[in-house]
Amino acid sequence: MAERLGLFGGTFDPIHVGHLVTAVNVRHALALDRVLLVVANDPWQKAALPVSRAADRLAMVEAAVADVEGLEASALEIDRGGVSYTADTLTELGDQRPDAELFVILGSDAAATLDTWERVDEVCSRATLVVVTRPGVGSLAAPPRWDHLVVEVPRLEVSSTDLRARVVDGRPLDWLVTDPVVRLIRTLGLYHEPQMSSQRSATP
Ligand code: ATP
Q: I need a surface site. Which of 26, 48, 167, 201 has the fewest CB within 10 A?
Protein backbone atom coordinates (compact mmCIF):
# COMPACT_ATOMS: atom_id res chain seq x y z
CA MET A 1 0.00 0.00 0.00
CA ALA A 2 1.21 3.53 -0.76
CA GLU A 3 2.84 5.32 2.13
CA ARG A 4 0.73 8.15 3.52
CA LEU A 5 3.20 10.90 4.26
CA GLY A 6 2.43 14.17 6.03
CA LEU A 7 4.55 17.31 5.66
CA PHE A 8 4.34 19.88 8.40
CA GLY A 9 6.57 22.78 7.47
CA GLY A 10 7.65 25.58 9.73
CA THR A 11 10.38 27.83 10.98
CA PHE A 12 10.28 26.03 14.33
CA ASP A 13 12.15 28.82 16.11
CA PRO A 14 11.64 27.07 18.49
CA ILE A 15 9.40 24.01 18.04
CA HIS A 16 6.71 23.94 20.76
CA VAL A 17 3.89 21.76 22.05
CA GLY A 18 1.37 23.39 19.69
CA HIS A 19 3.37 21.99 16.75
CA LEU A 20 3.73 18.56 18.36
CA VAL A 21 0.07 18.23 19.36
CA THR A 22 -0.89 19.19 15.81
CA ALA A 23 1.45 16.68 14.17
CA VAL A 24 0.48 13.68 16.30
CA ASN A 25 -3.25 14.40 16.06
CA VAL A 26 -3.25 14.86 12.28
CA ARG A 27 -1.21 11.68 11.93
CA HIS A 28 -3.80 9.82 13.98
CA ALA A 29 -6.88 11.40 12.35
CA LEU A 30 -5.72 10.66 8.79
CA ALA A 31 -3.89 7.39 9.52
CA LEU A 32 -0.63 8.79 8.17
CA ASP A 33 2.40 6.52 8.31
CA ARG A 34 4.74 9.41 9.09
CA VAL A 35 4.69 13.15 9.55
CA LEU A 36 7.85 14.99 8.52
CA LEU A 37 8.48 18.24 10.37
CA VAL A 38 10.20 20.10 7.58
CA VAL A 39 12.48 22.83 8.89
CA ALA A 40 12.52 25.85 6.56
CA ASN A 41 16.00 26.91 5.54
CA ASP A 42 15.00 30.44 4.65
CA PRO A 43 11.32 31.04 5.42
CA TRP A 44 10.20 33.62 2.86
CA GLN A 45 7.12 34.45 4.98
CA LYS A 46 9.47 35.81 7.63
CA ALA A 47 11.80 37.66 5.25
CA ALA A 48 11.79 40.83 7.33
CA LEU A 49 12.35 39.03 10.62
CA PRO A 50 15.45 37.64 12.29
CA VAL A 51 15.55 33.85 12.32
CA SER A 52 17.90 31.50 14.19
CA ARG A 53 20.43 29.34 12.36
CA ALA A 54 18.79 26.53 10.41
CA ALA A 55 21.10 23.97 12.06
CA ASP A 56 19.97 25.08 15.54
CA ARG A 57 16.27 24.95 14.59
CA LEU A 58 16.78 21.48 13.10
CA ALA A 59 18.57 20.28 16.25
CA MET A 60 15.59 21.41 18.34
CA VAL A 61 13.11 19.59 16.10
CA GLU A 62 15.24 16.43 16.17
CA ALA A 63 15.36 16.60 19.97
CA ALA A 64 11.60 17.18 20.23
CA VAL A 65 10.57 14.22 18.06
CA ALA A 66 13.30 11.76 19.04
CA ASP A 67 10.95 9.57 21.08
CA VAL A 68 7.70 10.27 19.25
CA GLU A 69 6.46 7.46 17.05
CA GLY A 70 5.67 8.52 13.50
CA LEU A 71 7.16 12.01 13.70
CA GLU A 72 10.46 12.80 11.99
CA ALA A 73 12.60 15.89 11.57
CA SER A 74 13.35 16.67 7.92
CA ALA A 75 16.40 18.58 6.70
CA LEU A 76 15.23 18.50 3.08
CA GLU A 77 14.87 22.28 2.76
CA ILE A 78 18.08 22.97 4.68
CA ASP A 79 20.03 20.57 2.46
CA ARG A 80 18.54 22.22 -0.65
CA GLY A 81 19.56 25.67 0.66
CA GLY A 82 18.18 29.03 -0.39
CA VAL A 83 14.58 30.16 0.02
CA SER A 84 12.23 27.36 1.10
CA TYR A 85 9.18 26.81 -1.07
CA THR A 86 6.79 23.93 -0.34
CA ALA A 87 6.28 23.41 -4.10
CA ASP A 88 9.98 22.52 -4.46
CA THR A 89 9.89 20.29 -1.39
CA LEU A 90 6.94 18.35 -2.79
CA THR A 91 8.73 17.92 -6.12
CA GLU A 92 11.79 16.56 -4.34
CA LEU A 93 9.76 14.21 -2.14
CA GLY A 94 7.72 13.05 -5.13
CA ASP A 95 10.96 12.17 -6.95
CA GLN A 96 12.30 10.31 -3.92
CA ARG A 97 9.04 8.50 -3.15
CA PRO A 98 6.93 8.35 -6.31
CA ASP A 99 4.40 6.00 -4.68
CA ALA A 100 3.78 8.06 -1.56
CA GLU A 101 0.52 9.91 -0.99
CA LEU A 102 1.44 13.38 0.26
CA PHE A 103 -0.43 15.59 2.73
CA VAL A 104 0.56 19.19 3.52
CA ILE A 105 -0.46 20.20 7.05
CA LEU A 106 -1.16 23.85 7.80
CA GLY A 107 -2.20 25.81 10.83
CA SER A 108 -5.16 28.07 10.12
CA ASP A 109 -2.93 31.18 10.14
CA ALA A 110 -0.70 29.64 7.49
CA ALA A 111 -3.76 28.50 5.51
CA ALA A 112 -5.05 32.07 5.43
CA THR A 113 -1.94 33.16 3.50
CA LEU A 114 -2.10 30.34 0.97
CA ASP A 115 -2.85 32.58 -2.00
CA THR A 116 0.55 34.26 -1.50
CA TRP A 117 2.42 30.95 -1.75
CA GLU A 118 4.85 30.27 -4.57
CA ARG A 119 3.15 27.96 -7.17
CA VAL A 120 0.25 27.20 -4.85
CA ASP A 121 -1.62 25.33 -7.62
CA GLU A 122 1.33 22.97 -7.92
CA VAL A 123 1.27 22.41 -4.15
CA CYS A 124 -2.44 21.57 -4.29
CA SER A 125 -2.07 19.21 -7.25
CA ARG A 126 0.82 17.29 -5.70
CA ALA A 127 -0.62 16.96 -2.20
CA THR A 128 -3.82 16.97 -0.19
CA LEU A 129 -4.05 20.11 1.93
CA VAL A 130 -4.90 19.56 5.57
CA VAL A 131 -6.00 22.60 7.54
CA VAL A 132 -5.90 22.33 11.30
CA THR A 133 -8.53 24.14 13.32
CA ARG A 134 -9.46 24.25 16.94
CA PRO A 135 -12.51 22.20 17.97
CA GLY A 136 -15.75 23.98 17.11
CA VAL A 137 -14.26 26.33 14.50
CA GLY A 138 -14.58 23.76 11.70
CA SER A 139 -14.26 24.90 8.11
CA LEU A 140 -14.62 28.61 8.97
CA ALA A 141 -10.86 28.89 9.30
CA ALA A 142 -10.13 27.05 6.10
CA PRO A 143 -9.10 28.63 2.80
CA PRO A 144 -12.15 28.72 0.52
CA ARG A 145 -10.42 28.44 -2.85
CA TRP A 146 -8.60 25.14 -2.59
CA ASP A 147 -9.78 21.62 -1.87
CA HIS A 148 -8.69 20.60 1.58
CA LEU A 149 -9.39 18.42 4.56
CA VAL A 150 -10.07 19.92 7.97
CA VAL A 151 -8.76 18.27 11.12
CA GLU A 152 -9.72 19.54 14.54
CA VAL A 153 -6.97 19.45 17.16
CA PRO A 154 -6.85 20.93 20.65
CA ARG A 155 -5.61 24.47 20.20
CA LEU A 156 -2.79 25.41 22.53
CA GLU A 157 -2.18 29.14 22.76
CA VAL A 158 1.56 28.97 22.39
CA SER A 159 3.73 30.57 19.74
CA SER A 160 7.42 30.67 18.98
CA THR A 161 7.24 34.48 19.20
CA ASP A 162 6.06 34.29 22.81
CA LEU A 163 8.68 31.67 23.67
CA ARG A 164 11.50 33.87 22.37
CA ALA A 165 10.14 36.76 24.44
CA ARG A 166 10.03 34.48 27.48
CA VAL A 167 13.75 33.78 27.18
CA VAL A 168 14.51 37.51 26.94
CA ASP A 169 12.38 38.19 30.04
CA GLY A 170 13.63 35.17 31.98
CA ARG A 171 10.17 33.60 32.15
CA PRO A 172 9.83 29.77 32.14
CA LEU A 173 9.54 27.68 28.99
CA ASP A 174 8.65 24.49 30.85
CA TRP A 175 5.65 22.53 29.49
CA LEU A 176 5.43 24.86 26.48
CA VAL A 177 8.40 23.13 24.86
CA THR A 178 9.74 19.67 25.70
CA ASP A 179 12.58 19.26 28.20
CA PRO A 180 15.23 18.34 25.59
CA VAL A 181 14.36 21.54 23.71
CA VAL A 182 14.56 23.65 26.89
CA ARG A 183 18.03 22.21 27.45
CA LEU A 184 19.12 22.88 23.86
CA ILE A 185 17.92 26.48 24.00
CA ARG A 186 20.11 26.95 27.08
CA THR A 187 23.11 25.10 25.65
CA LEU A 188 22.98 26.97 22.35
CA GLY A 189 22.34 30.27 24.13
CA LEU A 190 19.37 31.09 21.91
CA TYR A 191 16.97 34.04 22.13
CA HIS A 192 18.74 36.15 24.71
CA GLU A 193 18.82 39.22 22.49
CA PRO A 194 15.42 40.81 21.77
CA GLN A 195 16.65 42.01 18.34
CA MET A 196 19.06 39.25 17.37
CA SER A 197 20.52 39.77 13.92
CA SER A 198 19.33 37.60 11.07
CA GLN A 199 21.36 34.43 10.67
CA ARG A 200 19.96 33.23 7.39
CA SER A 201 22.33 32.06 4.75
CA ALA A 202 22.09 30.78 1.22
CA THR A 203 23.75 27.59 2.39
CA PRO A 204 22.72 25.42 5.36
P1 ATP B 1 6.13 32.52 15.15
O2 ATP B 1 5.46 32.87 16.45
O3 ATP B 1 7.62 32.77 15.15
O4 ATP B 1 5.44 33.13 13.94
P5 ATP B 1 4.84 29.89 15.13
O6 ATP B 1 4.66 29.53 16.56
O7 ATP B 1 3.62 30.36 14.39
O8 ATP B 1 6.04 30.92 14.97
P9 ATP B 1 5.86 28.39 12.85
O10 ATP B 1 7.10 27.58 12.87
O11 ATP B 1 5.88 29.67 12.12
O12 ATP B 1 5.46 28.62 14.41
O13 ATP B 1 4.60 27.53 12.41
C14 ATP B 1 4.68 26.35 11.66
C15 ATP B 1 3.27 25.82 11.49
O16 ATP B 1 2.73 25.55 12.78
C17 ATP B 1 2.29 26.77 10.80
O18 ATP B 1 1.46 26.00 9.93
C19 ATP B 1 1.47 27.33 11.96
O20 ATP B 1 0.16 27.66 11.55
C21 ATP B 1 1.45 26.14 12.91
N22 ATP B 1 1.31 26.53 14.32
C23 ATP B 1 1.98 27.46 14.99
N24 ATP B 1 1.60 27.55 16.27
C25 ATP B 1 0.62 26.62 16.43
C26 ATP B 1 -0.20 26.19 17.55
N27 ATP B 1 -0.10 26.76 18.76
N28 ATP B 1 -1.08 25.20 17.32
C29 ATP B 1 -1.21 24.64 16.10
N30 ATP B 1 -0.47 24.98 15.01
C31 ATP B 1 0.44 25.96 15.17
A: 48
- Quote the pLDDT of residue 203: 40
* Residue 154 CB contacts under 8 Å (≥ 6 apart), including other chains: 21, 25, 134, 135
- The CATH class, in words, for 4-195 is alpha beta
DSSP run (H or E) holding 18: helix 17-29
Residues flanking ligand 1, CB < 6 Å:
10-13, 18-19, 22, 106-107, 109-110, 132, 155-156, 158-161
The C-alpha angle with vertex 177 and arms to 174 and 182, in degrees rounded to 5, equals 70
Looking at the DSSP bridge assignments, the partners of residue 132 are 107, 151
Domain ranges of the chain: 4-195
Q: What is the mean pLDDT of each run of 10 residues along the chain (204 residues)?
A: 95 97 98 98 82 97 97 97 95 95 92 89 95 71 76 92 95 97 97 59 40
Residue of 19, 61, 86 to mutate, ligand 1, most atoms within 8 A of C-beta: 19
Mutation pick for ligand 1 pocket among 7, 11, 20 (CB with most ligand atoms within 8 Å): 11
